[in-house]
């Protein structure tokens, strides 16, 4: 089921060169219509499996593996609220490396410090008194009092390189949720319903609406 084939049409005034009449129209797809997950399905934990995107996997490859249909790649995307695959889908290792070189300018710059983060600190009972991964200044210190009662202040900031930062950001995109096949039918049915137009002044039929043409009224 191709997503774009299901999109409804707009009968718009033609702006193409060579048109013969001012009221000449063409059919275009309404890209402003967008399929969404039904709220009860979207909130149901049991409706999904989680998957780690492997190196080189695209949405159509995953759709073919899960639903036996590569044209259902849009199901993978809307399930994860992905609207811009360029920015929201993980890059391959090679593309990621090229992206980092373009962003930071050189191989050497990949080792430069991007920011500093807290280092995990535990007390004598193995309890976490400072969690790791919090972005802080380079001179960040942490003061605590251990069991012996002697207050201690330690440097608790560790550097994160440009390379590490970009790699972690890319890896975070690899974990996606997959709508289980048994819920697919409901989604496709809802999608077809959403794509139908309701009656209005622009209504032509359930799959087509007409845009306003000012020239028809002498404007």
Describe this structure in words.
With 219 residues, the protein is α+β, with helices and mostly antiparallel strands. The protein has two domains: 3-91 and 174-217, no CATH class; 96-169, no CATH class. It contains eight helices and 13 strands. α3 (59-67) packs across α4 (73-79). The two termini are 42 Å apart.
A few lines on this structure:
This protein has 219 residues and is of the alpha+beta class. It contains eight helices and 13 strands.
Secondary structure elements and pairings:
Layout: H1 3-6, E1 9-13, E2 25-29, H2 39-42, E3 48-52, H3 59-67, H4 73-79, H5 85-88, H6 93-104, E4 113-118, E5 121-122, E6 128-130, E7 135-136, E8 141-144, E9 152-155, E10 157-161, H7 162-172, E11 175-179, H8 184-194, E12 203-205, E13 208-210
Helix pairs in contact: 3-4
List the uncertain runs: none
The SSE order reads HEEHEHHHHEEEEEEEHEHEE
Trace the largest sheet across and list its strands: 2-1-13-12
Helix fraction, binned, reads 25-40%
Q: Please, how many helices? A: 8
End-to-end span in angstroms? 42 Å
Report the principal-axis shape.
elongated
* Domain module count: 2
Major sheet details? 4 strands, mixed
**Oligomeric category:** single chain
Rg over CA atoms: 27 Å
> Mean of the pLDDT scores?
87
Return the structural class.
Answer: alpha+beta
Strand content: 15-25%
Overall number of strands: 13
């Amino acid at each position: 089921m191709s997503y774009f084939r299901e999109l409804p049409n707009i009968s718009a005034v033609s702006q193409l060169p060579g048109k013969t009449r001012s009221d000449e129209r063409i059919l275009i797809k309404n890209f402003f219509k967008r399929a969404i997950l039904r709220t009860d399905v979207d909130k149901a934990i049991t409706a999904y499996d989680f998957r780690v995107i492997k190196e080189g996997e695209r949405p159509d490859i995953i759709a073919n593996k899960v639903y036996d249909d590569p044209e259902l790649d849009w199901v993978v995307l809307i399930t994860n609220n992905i609207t811009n695959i360029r920015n929201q889908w993980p890059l391959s290792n090679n593309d990621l490396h090229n992206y980092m070189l373009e962003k930071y300018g050189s191989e050497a710059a990949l080792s430069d410090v991007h920011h500093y983060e807290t280092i995990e600190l535990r007390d004598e009972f193995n309890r976490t008194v400072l969690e790791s991964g919090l972005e802080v200044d380079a001179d960040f210190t942490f003061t605590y009092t251990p069991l012996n009662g002697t207050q201690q202040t330690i440097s608790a900031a560790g550097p994160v390189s440009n390379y590490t930062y970009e790699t972690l950001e890319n890896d975070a995109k690899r974990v996606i949720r997959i709508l289980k096949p048994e819920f697919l039918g409901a989604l496709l049915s809802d999608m077809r319903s959403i794509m139908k137009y309701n009656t209005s002044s622009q209504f032509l039929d359930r799959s087509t609406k007409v845009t306003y043409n000012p020239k028809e009224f002498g404007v």
